[in-house]
Automatic annotation (TrEMBL):
<dbReference type="GO" id="GO:0008289">
    <property type="term" value="F:lipid binding"/>
</dbReference>
<dbReference type="InterPro" id="IPR032942">
    <property type="entry name" value="BPI/LBP/Plunc"/>
</dbReference>
<keyword id="KW-0399">Innate immunity</keyword>
<dbReference type="GO" id="GO:0005615">
    <property type="term" value="C:extracellular space"/>
</dbReference>
<dbReference type="InterPro" id="IPR017943">
    <property type="entry name" value="Bactericidal_perm-incr_a/b_dom"/>
</dbReference>
<keyword id="KW-0391">Immunity</keyword>
<keyword id="KW-0732">Signal</keyword>
<dbReference type="GO" id="GO:0045087">
    <property type="term" value="P:innate immune response"/>
</dbReference>
<keyword id="KW-0964">Secreted</keyword>
<comment type="function">
    <text>The cytotoxic action of BPI is limited to many species of Gram-negative bacteria; this specificity may be explained by a strong affinity of the very basic N-terminal half for the negatively charged lipopolysaccharides that are unique to the Gram-negative bacterial outer envelope.</text>
</comment>
<feature type="signal peptide">
    <location>
        <begin position="1"/>
        <end position="20"/>
    </location>
</feature>
<keyword id="KW-0325">Glycoprotein</keyword>
<protein>
    <recommendedName>
        <fullName>Bactericidal permeability-increasing protein</fullName>
    </recommendedName>
</protein>
<dbReference type="GO" id="GO:0050829">
    <property type="term" value="P:defense response to Gram-negative bacterium"/>
</dbReference>
<keyword id="KW-1015">Disulfide bond</keyword>
<keyword id="KW-0044">Antibiotic</keyword>
<keyword id="KW-0929">Antimicrobial</keyword>
C-alpha cells in the first residue's frame, strides 16, 4: 500500500559516516512536475511486489506477540487516477490513494496455554476492499549521513476480511473476523509503524552510499582499483511545496580514507528554478576531489617518439567552473628519462572543457588546451611539443577513461533523464531535464 511513497526513497538511496559540516558536491532536485512520473514508477514497483514474500516479522496478537512468516500480496488493483503523490513542506512526501483492492496470505505461529504451551501454525488469507489512505512520510538524515524515514501522519479506512486455517489459528481468525473493520481502521497505521517502517529503514541502512569504479588507463597500461564516490547525505533534505532537494557529499577518493578538508570547496550549490522535472547540480568540490585523486596517483611515464618522459604534478590540479564551462589549471614538470642530466621543464597548462548530456549520462567534451613553459628556453621549446602532446592527447585519454561511458544521473531503473539542458554558474553547474518512465519487464 505504501510502496508508491517508499519508491521515491530509492531516489535518495542511489547515495561512511560524514560530519554535518561537509560540503555538497552533488545535489539532486525533484520538482512537483515529476510527481506523476514518480507515481507511475511507484505503481509499477508496487505491482512487482505481488507474489513476492516480505521478510518475517513479529506482530501483536492480543496480549501476546505472534510470528508472521511469508507475508505475500496475491493481487492488487488500483486506478492510477485515484493515486496522488505530493510534497509536504519541511517534511517529505504525502501519498493519497482511494479505492484500492488487495488480497494476500501469510503463515502465522500462535501459542496458547492450556495446562502447557501449545503452538499452532496456520495459513491466513485476507482481503481488503475500498481501501483509502493518506500517509505522510518524513525524510530525515541520521548521524551516519543515511536517509531515515518516519510516519508524519497516517489515516487508513478499508473493508477488511481474513480467514485462518489450523487448530488454533483458524478459530482465532474466525473470532477476529468480527473485529476486521476495527482492525483496518485503527490498527493498520500502528502496524505500518511497527513493521513496514523498520523494514524500510533497515533496507536504507544496508544500502551502500558509495559508487565504486575501476579505472583502466590504457595508454599507461595501468589499472586503478577501488575508486569511490561518497554519496552520503551532506546535510538535511530540504522540502518545499514544489521541490525536494537531496544534497550529497560527492567526494571522489581512493583507499581507506581521504582528508575532506584538503579539497577546494568552491561555491554552494543553488537551484534557481523548478520549471523542469529534475535537476542535478555538480560543484567544483566534486571535480577538485577527482583532481586530488589524480595528483595522488603520482608521476606518469610516457613513451613518445622522442623517448620516454616522466610527467609529474607539482601540486594538485585546480578545477574552476565559470559561465563558459570548466577550466583545469595544472602545474607539471616534464623530465626526459633518456637525458636525465638535463633539468626538467616546468609547465603551467589550462584545459578548457564542457559537459555534454547523453541519455542518462554526463560526458566530457574538450574545447582547448594552453600551456606556458618556465623558462622559455631553447630546451623548453624542444620539450614543449611533448608537454602539449601529453595534455592534448594523454590527459584527454585519462579523463576519457573515467568518463568514457559518462557519469550516470542518479535515478532508479526505469526513470530516464530527457531533454537535458546544462547551465554553468560561477562555482557549479546544473543539469535540468524531464523524467521519462519506461519501466521494462
Amino acid at each position: 500500500m505504501t510502496s508508491c511513497v517508499f519508491f521515491l526513497l530509492f531516489l535518495l538511496v542511489v547515495f561512511p559516516s560524514i560530519a554535518a559540516i561537509n560540503p555538497t558536491g552533488i545535489k539532486l532536485r525533484i520538482s512537483d512536475r515529476a510527481l506523476d512520473a514518480l507515481r507511475d514508477a511507484g505503481l509499477k514497483y508496487l505491482g512487482q511486489l505481488v507474489n513476492k514474500s516480505l521478510p518475517d516479522f513479529v506482530a501483536p496478537c492480543g496480549c501476546e506477540m505472534c510470528k508472521v512468516k511469508g507475508l505475500t500480496l496475491t493481487s492488487l488493483t488500483v486506478d492510477p487516477a485515484q493515486v496522488v503523490l505530493g510534497l509536504q513542506e519541511k517534511s517529505g512526501i504525502q501519498l493519497e490513494i482511494t479505492n484500492l483492492h488487495f488480497t494476500g496470505e501469510f503463515q502465522q505461529d500462535i501459542s496458547v496455554y492450556f495446562l502447557k504451551e501449545i503452538t499452532d501454525t496456520g495459513k491466513v488469507t485476507f482481503e481488503g476492499k475500498a481501501l483509502s489512505l493518506i500517509i505522510g512520510v518524513k525524510l530525515n538524515r541520521n548521524q551516519q549521513g543515511r536517509l531515515n524515514v518516519e510516519l508524519a501522519n497516517c489515516e487508513i479506512t478499508a473493508e477488511f476480511k481474513a480467514k485462518g486455517s489450523g487448530r488454533i489459528v483458524g478459530p482465532v481468525w474466525d473470532f477476529l473476523g468480527f473485529l476486521g473493520h476495527d482492525f483496518s481502521n485503527t490498527k493498520l497505521c500502528p502496524a505500518l509503524q511497527m513493521t513496514v517502517l523498520p523494514i524500510i529503514n533497515n533496507m536504507l541502512a544496508d544500502h551502500t552510499m558509495m559508487l565504486h569504479k575501476v579505472l583502466n588507463i590504457s595508454f599507461l597500461n595501468y589499472i586503478i582499483p577501488d575508486i569511490n564516490v561518497d554519496l552520503s547525505l551532506s546535510e538535511d533534505i530540504s522540502v518545499t511545496s514544489c521541490s525536494l532537494d537531496v544534497p550529497l557529499t560527492g567526494l571522489v577518493w581512493q583507499g581507506d580514507s581521504m582528508d575532506i578538508l584538503s579539497v577546494t570547496r568552491g561555491a554552494d550549490l543553488v537551484f534557481g528554478e523548478s520549471k523542469m522535472m529534475a535537476y542535478v547540480g555538480i560543484s567544483e568540490f566534486f571535480f577538485n576531489s577527482a583532481a586530488m585523486l589524480l595528483y595522488r596517483l603520482g608521476p606518469f611515464r610516457l613513451n613518445v617518439p622522442q623517448g620516454p618522459i616522466e610527467v609529474k604534478f607539482i601540486d594538485t590540479p585546480v578545477v574552476s567552473i565559470g559561465k563558459s564551462g570548466l577550466c583545469i589549471n595544472v602545474n607539471v614538470t616534464a623530465q626526459s628519462l633518456t637525458e636525465s642530466s638535463q633539468p626538467p621543464v616546468i609547465a603551467n597548462c589550462q584545459l578548457y572543457l564542457k559537459i555534454e548530456f547523453k541519455e542518462n549520462r554526463l560526458a566530457l567534451a574538450f574545447k582547448d588546451t594552453k600551456c606556458k613553459l618556465q623558462p622559455e628556453t631553447m630546451k623548453g621549446n624542444v620539450v614543449k611539443p611533448l608537454v602539449n602532446f601529453f595534455f592534448n592527447c594523454k590527459t584527454k585519454g585519462f579523463l576519457k577513461n573515467w568518463f568514457d561511458e559518462g557519469v550516470a544521473v542518479p535515478l532508479p531503473g526505469g526513470l530516464h533523464f530527457t531533454h537535458g539542458k546544462i547551465h554553468y554558474q560561477n562555482g557549479f553547474m546544473v543539469v535540468g531535464g524531464n523524467l521519462d518512465f519506461t519501466f521494462g519487464g
